[in-house]
Amino acid sequence: MTTATATPSPAHTQGLGDESSIWFKLTPLLKGPDNPMTVLMEMTKRYGSPLQFNMANQRIVLLSEPEHFKRVLVSNAANYEKYFDGLKPIFGKSMITNDGALWQKIRMPQQPAFHPDMFVDYVPYFVEAINQKMADWAEKAKTGEEFEMVEQTWTLAADMICKALFDRDMPFNPHFVFKCVKTYTDVMNHKSIRLKKVAGQEFEMTEENAAKAMETWHEVPDLVMASNPREHREKTLLKMIEDVVADPEVPEFDHQQAVDEFKQYLWAGTETTALTLAWAMYLTSKHPEAADRIRREGEEVLGDRTPTAADYSHLVYTRSVIQETMRLYPPIWGLIRVAAEEDEIEGKKIMPGDRVVMFAYGAHHDERFWEAPEEFRPERWMGEANKKQTKYSYLPFGGGRRSCIGGAMSQVENTLALSILLRRFRPEYVGIMPAGINATVTLTPRGGLNFKVHELS
Ligand code: HEM
C-alpha cells in the first residue's frame, strides 16, 4: 500500500456514527433471507405503491410503480432532493450529493468528459487495463487458486478510470482502499442493528476502525492528483476539473470540491461497474451457452484485432448480457430522495421530510414489464424482443436529469471487458448456489463471488 500524505478534513468525517440514515435503518429489515429484496417485493405486491410506513420515527414512502418513479425523477423532480445522510464521509460534497444551482455548477464543467465522442480516446486505456487483468488471470489459471470476483473487477474498474479519465496509473492499492470504505458502511450498518437490538451480535469492527478507514479514504484523491501523468494528455476529466478549480468565476469549485469529486468517481464510478461485471461473470458461468455466444461474437467482430470504440456497437449480444445483468442485479437497488414540500402520488400525501425510496429492483423483476422476470434472457434486449418494458421500468442508472453521468461509459467498459476476458478464459463459479444477496446502498453478493479461472486453449 502506498502511504498517503494528506490530512483528512474534520468536516468530512463528522458524519461518523450517523445512525439516523435510512440506508442503515433499512438494513435490519433486509437482513435474513438469501435474497432480502423478496421482502420488499412481497410488501409492494401486497400493499401497492406508494407504501408508507414508519421506521424508528421516520416516515418512509416506498414506490414501486414506473409512473411514480417518473413523478419523483422527472415531472416534479424539483420537489425531491438527493439523500445522502450517513454517506457524506464517503462522498463529501460531490456532485452526486448536491441539488439545485450548485449541482448544476458542479456537473456542467465535467459533463463533456462523459460525452460518447470521448470514448474513442478512452477505449485504448480500458483495453490496456483489461490486458493487465488478463496477465493476472493467466497466473491464477496456472496456480488454480480461488479468488473473489468483485475484488478483481473492482481493481479493473478503478484502473480503467484512473488511466482513461485521469491519465494516471492507480497510485493506491484498491483492495485495501475499498475495504476501508466497506469497513465504514459495515460498521454503520451493524451499529443500526445493535441500536435496535435486533440481534445480540458481537462485531469485530469498531467505530475507531471506521474512522481510521475513512482517513485512508480521504487521502486517496490527493494521492491520485499528485502522481505523475502517464502521457500528459490534454483532454481528460482531471484537466477539466483543474481548469474549473483555476477559474475565478466558479469560486464554489475549489480544491476541496475537486477532492470530493474524485471520491465520488473512485467510489460510485467503480463499485457499480465492478458489481455489474462480477455478476455478469457469475451469470455466464451458470449459463455456458451465453459465454460461448459472447466468444463467437468476439471472434466475428474483432478477430485478432485490438478493439476500438467503433467495435462496441457491434458487440450486440455481449452488451445485452450486461443490460440483462443490471436488470437482474441492479447495483443501485433503490434510489432515495427527501420530499421538500407536500406532494400527492396516487391520492396519497407525501409530506415534507418523507424519505422516498424508488424500488428499482422491484420494477426490474415485475412480471408486468418482463416476460419470465427471474430468468436470465439476454435476447430480450435484442431487436423487438422486449415488448412489455415501459420507460421507467428499467433504471439501473436512475432517471431524469440526475441520472448517472457515467452510465454509457460503464457499458462500454463492461462490454469490452466481458468480451475480451471470456475469449481467453473460462471463469468457473465455485461459491454457494445460488449466490446470496446483501442490500445496503448497493446490491452486493453475500460473502462474495468465489471463482477459479481456466485458460482456454
Ligand atoms: C454499472 C455502472 C453504474 C451504475 C449501475 C450506476 C448507477 C448510478 C445511479 C443509479 C445514479 C443515480 C443515483 C440517484 O439518482 O440517486 C448514478 C449517478 C451518478 N453516477 Fe453512476 N453508475 C455507474 C457507473 C458510473 C461511472 C462509471 C461513473 C463515473 C466514472 C459514475 C458516476 C456517477 C455520478 C457522478 C453520478 C451523479 C450524477 C448527478 O447527480 O448529477 N457512475 N449512478
Provide an overview of this structure.
This protein is of the alpha+beta class and 457 residues long. It has one domain (10-455): Orthogonal Bundle (Cytochrome p450), CATH 1.10.630. The protein has 17 helices and 12 strands. Strands 1-2-8-5-3 form a 5-stranded mixed β-sheet, with helices on both faces. The chain is globular, with a radius of gyration of 22 Å. The two termini are 35 Å apart. The structure holds protoporphyrin IX containing FE. The site of protoporphyrin IX containing FE has 25 residues, from helix 11, helix 12 and helix 17. Residues 95-96, 107, 161, 264-265, 268-269, 272-273, 276, 331-332, 335, 396-398, 402-407, 409-410 line the site of protoporphyrin IX containing FE.
Task: Give descriptors for this structure.
single chain, globular, alpha+beta, 3-stranded antiparallel beta sheet, 5-stranded mixed beta sheet, Cytochrome p450, disordered N terminus, 457 residues, binds protoporphyrin IX containing FE, 17 helices
Quick rundown:
49% of the residues lie in helices and 11% in strands. With 457 residues, it is of the alpha+beta class.
Detail the topology: elements first, then pairings.
Elements: H1 22-30, H2 37-47, E1 51-55, E2 58-63, H3 66-75, E3 80-82, H4 88-91, H5 100-107, H6 119-143, E4 147-148, H7 149-166, H8 174-196, H9 207-226, H10 237-246, H11 255-268, H12 271-286, H13 288-302, H14 309-312, H15 316-328, E5 334-339, E6 343-345, E7 348-350, E8 355-359, H16 360-364, H17 407-424, E9 425-429, E10 437-439, E11 443-445, E12 450-455
Parallel strand pairs: 2-8
Antiparallel strand pairs: 1-2, 3-5, 4-12, 5-8, 6-7, 9-12, 10-11
Helix pairs in contact: 1-8, 6-7, 6-17, 7-12, 8-9, 9-11, 12-15, 12-17, 13-15, 13-17, 15-17
